[in-house]
Amino acid sequence: MEIKKILNGLERSPALLRDLMAAVPAARLKEHRIAGKWCIHEHAVHLAQVQEMINKRLHRFMTEKTPEFAPYVPGKSTPPDELMKLGLKESLRKFAAERKKFTGMLRQLKKKEWRKKAKHPEYDNYTPYLMARHLLLHDNVHMYRIEELWLTRELGKK
User: Fold this and answer.
1) How many other β-carbons are positioned within 10 Å of the β-carbon of residue 97?
2) Is 96:14 a contact under the CB 8 Å cutoff?
């Protein structure tokens, strides 16, 4: 039952993000309202970048006995200005397409495969189930940040 809820949430995220981004005025997209923090554009395109990486991880779960993963740290394992250079519309399309692939692969997993363990230096336990749930929560964190940056007055000012 919980797996179905996670899958449903993951499948809904691209449309929710698309609708959210359509509501944000263009002038606000690349406005850095808090020094040293991401703007709305960066949060949105980051979701597409992460989804592509997560698809590769799930493929490895499906094809390797005990996959080992390296941490993904934007700005440290990638160029710091990478997200600003990415196109928003293309990233939203990519996010939807990559997410559809991901949920399709998840739906192929047998019950036992959802609990298959991998090695990850940041986590005590890392399985397809935990990765999928973590990804859903990750989506929501970034969409909340987008809405917060868009709607909050005097954000980051003292």
Assistant:
1) 14
2) yes
